Amino acid sequence: MQANPKGVLTGTHFLDGDQACCEGALAAGARFAAGYPITPSTEIVERFAWRIPTVGGMFIQMEDELAASIAILGAVWGGAKAFTVTSGPGFSLMMEHIGYAAMTETPCVFVDVQRGGPSTGLPTLPAQGDMMQARWGSHGDYEIIALCPNSPQECFDVTIRAFNLAEEFRVPVMLMMDECVGHMTEKVVIPRAEEIEIYPRRHTARGPGEYWPYETNGDLVPEMAHAGEGYRFHITGLTHDERGYPAMNAAAQDRLVRRLKNKIRAAADRLALYEEEATEDAEVVVVSYGITSRVAQRAVEMARQRGIRVGKFRLVAAWPFPAARLRELAQRVKVFVVPELNCGQMVLEVERAAAGMARIIPVTHAGGDVHRPETILEAIVEAAR
Amino acid sequence: MTAVVETPVINPVEPFLRMDRMPHIWCPGCGIGTTVNCFARALIESKADPEKLAVVSGIGCTGRVAGYLHVDSFHTTHGRAIPFATGLKLANPSLQVVVYSGDGDLFAIGGNHLIHAARRNIDLKVICVNNFIYAMTGGQTAPTTPEPATTTTAPYGSYEPAFNLPYLTESAGATYVARWTTYHVRQLTRSIVEMLQKKGFCLIEVLSPCPTLYQRRNRLGDALETMKYYKERSKTRHGAPTSEVGLTMQGDIVVGKFVDRDRPDYLESMRRRLAEQLGDKFAGVGVLA
Amino acid sequence: MAKGFVCIQVERCKGCGFCVEFCPTRVLALSSAFNSKGYHPPHVVNGEKCSGCDLCGIYCPDFAIFGWKARASEGAAHAG
Prior knowledge:
The complex is a heterotrimer.
Chain A: E1 11-16, H1 17-28, E2 32-35, H2 42-55, E3 58-61, H3 65-77, E4 82-86, H4 88-104, E5 108-116, E6 122-126, H5 131-136, E7 145-147, H6 152-169, E8 172-178, H7 179-183, E9 185-190, E10 234-236, H8 250-265, H9 268-271, E11 274-277, E12 284-289, H10 290-305, E13 310-315, E14 317-319, H11 323-330, E15 335-339, H12 346-354, E16 359-363, H13 373-384
Parallel strand pairs in A: 2-3, 2-4, 4-5, 5-8, 7-8, 12-13, 12-15, 15-16
Antiparallel strand pairs in A: 1-9, 5-6, 7-14, 11-13
Helix pairs in contact in A: 1-2, 1-6, 3-4, 10-13, 11-12
Chain B: H1 32-46, E1 53-57, H2 65-68, E2 72-75, H3 81-91, E3 96-102, H4 103-109, H5 111-120, E4 125-130, E5 133-134, E6 140-141, H6 165-172, E7 176-181, H7 185-197, E8 202-207, H8 211-217, H9 223-233, E9 234-236, E10 253-260, H10 266-278
Parallel strand pairs in B: 1-2, 1-3, 3-4, 4-8, 7-8, 9-10
Antiparallel strand pairs in B: 5-6, 7-10
Chain C: E1 4-8, H1 18-22, E2 28-30, E3 42-44, H2 55-59, E4 65-69
Antiparallel strand pairs in C: 1-4, 2-3
């Protein structure tokens, strides 16, 4: 279906990534946001609090991130599209409800504008140190989707995509921004509502009495009902059966957890969002994401001027990781250079995908700044040697 | 033997329960079932539409209540029933949202959420079953455990002061606060009916036996003896200042309706403020895009 | 002639004794028999005194008993 024009600020704007993310959420149909102030993400909900009363909907500032991250889940079961935004310390607190959302299959979006960590770290400075936390931060086995935009325009576009994927797969989707992308201001073009495709809620067509909340119909993703519609359903974070009732045994656990994982894994190829440039004849490929991909772009251009056959591979989705494509590339690429604003997180996935077929050169950075293009260039030069 | 007269053949509360999940997990003599019984009877009495009612629980023995009620029901995470219910209520204000959970869930791990929901005056109806202990995990000290009761984590007796739940809840801004025990089934039922008709953040504390863990460990007898203690030592004092209703181990229990006042609830305040400020530009608080 | 009846669902009972203790007219007693879970359920000992007040029903934590008021044509208390 098409976006509701009420939330779409069609036109050409000069926005930072945080503001663009907010506009993306509004365009995607989010009408409920709950948050707790934390740098450098706060501008997203500040804008939402300012915009939403004229669009229709609400923002509530909760008492902490635990509350914000479950208030949105309550709102979703009440019928809303909802999201919350945070940064490292708040993201840590939200882990419990990322797990609850995964377990109860509640479609929602968590935005993490990454800053330096651990702990309070560098509140106003960038990092990409939460990438593994996004994937593995809550306890137990589950699968999520995580996207990482690299510009304000993408903050708009990818936020819409995040909401659509959340609805399609009934999972929490992580939008992994970083301080630089969040605070950089660029041109953002917001299209007309009819040009924006929205994935509607997978609401059951069955009537009360014929409906169980976790009965699947072929494609591993069950259909939803909302509270107050007469279904009188039960939702729990305990391991449950198709009826939503607690089922405390290994067989029920196996069935549920494998389905929660497989609904994403089965679509991994389609969910592997990436951008590739000049990889056809590349000996070296730079794998990067978020703000680092913009620095890597410069480094790649500098390397090409020196005649190095270097390509670029940018993750738009970090999770599920596009392992299949990287494995193909590994068969003919000599070296993957992996710069990121952490001490080596996604590089582990690149290594896993390459499976020894290509050499890996991580270009780590503890955060607080971005790489210098020359640093990445050095790694490319070394790789090509 | 079967009744063979023209009479109701099912218990009147059954339509409000998930009978396919019975028997429930609660121990013999546990009072939670009695509170559920009163709740179901209050629904009958108030003619509440069960399809417009949602029950949200946290974790623990009382956290299991949501799963036994045949309404839209949510068993959430530990301590977070109130913020979940906040989102649910705000998204669909036509729902009657009841939070049904235990003392540890609502006042320890969830304490911050409770006071803020009361401060905001979110239209939630909270039933707090207080059994003085963390029962699901085997009998650890709760914020309500009276001195000097012993628990598995206070093997030499508790030396922490306990929370006075009505005092705390009133101070935070609740519009309705009452306390009963599982002995006071008629009063509790009436109180729930009254609460369901009230607007704003409301809380009823219900003292309930935990014969398996609290009473037995403290040599206070079985559930029936606890019920007799509730009967003998409870003093009904409607309107009692909540500062005076703190509980002691085996002392008098002040019960009654302590707080019943009106103030604008969260949604009302939000709507009024935004309408004042934005005039015709205000598009309402409906979240369904 | 009894003014009311009780219906006891023996298998749901966990033997707490609340219904026996708080019946205002002492209609019930705990049975010496066991149900299949090993609890002693209540049984009717003074059926003619039952007023059908349903206090037993409200107290029961296990939804195992309830009372109702008789219509003119009905007789004694029952267990089922």
